[in-house]
Amino acid sequence: MIFDAIDKKLLTYLQEDSKQTNKELSLKLNLSVTAVYERIKKLEKEGFIESYVALVNKERIDKAFVVFCHVKLVQHSQEFVIKFEKEVASLNEVLECYHISGDYDYLLKVIVKDMAAFREFMVKKLTTINHIGSTHSMFVINEVKHSTAIGF
Questions:
Q1: Engineered SS bond to 35: which of 12, 31, 47, 56, CB 3.0-4.6 Å?
Q2: Three-state DSSP class for 93?
Q3: Domain 65-139 adopts which CATH fold?
Q4: What gap in Å lies between CA 123 and CA 2, rounded to an integer?
Q5: In CATH, which of 3.40.50.620, 1.10.10.10, 2.60.40.730, 3.30.70.100 is domain 5-45?
């Protein structure tokens, strides 16, 4: 598949607002509606577009307390890694989880209502996962930039 400048522009527009009509996109890209439709279908089929989502306002749903939590496992065996990843993936409070290099093994992005809710999450959920050696948490004071769009 050829991935060209028009595809990049199309992806940029869709990341800004995926509810734009093919007619609106065709006017922006100077293409026919059919050409836009075919490009979108091609990008979906080839895996460039994975899904379409609604971005929810954290404050409106009372989940604006964001915490980044480092996690260190007691051991780096395949069994411990697989079990930890499976268990952490099931926690609704964890929006993102990355296996990282450095002093800690994982970085979690956690979103809850407030400090009390975070403490409950730590005590009743995260630290009950076997094989966690230690954690280190950092609380977000102010969100300077947040984007879901990938630039081209």
A1: 31
A2: coil
A3: Alpha-Beta Plaits (3.30.70)
A4: 50
A5: 1.10.10.10
One-letter amino acid for residue 51 of the chain: S
CB contact at 8 A, 118 and 85: no
What integer pLDDT is reported at residue 1 of this predicted model? Answer: 75
Residue with tokens 């075919």: 38
**35 class by beta-carbon count within 10 Å (0-12 exposed, 13-18 middle, 19+ buried):** middle
Mean pLDDT score, 100-124? 97
Q: What are phi and psi of 70, to 5 degrees?
A: -85, 140
Site of tokens 């026919």:
32
Note the pLDDT of residue 77.
87
Whether the Cβ atoms of residue 53 and residue 123 lie closer than 8 Å to each other: no
Cα–Cα distance measured from residue 148 to residue 55, given in angstroms and rounded to the nearest whole number: 9
Q: How many CB atoms within 10 Å of residue 126? A: 21
Q: Edge-to-edge strands of the sheet including 65-73? A: 94-99, 106-112, 65-73, 132-139
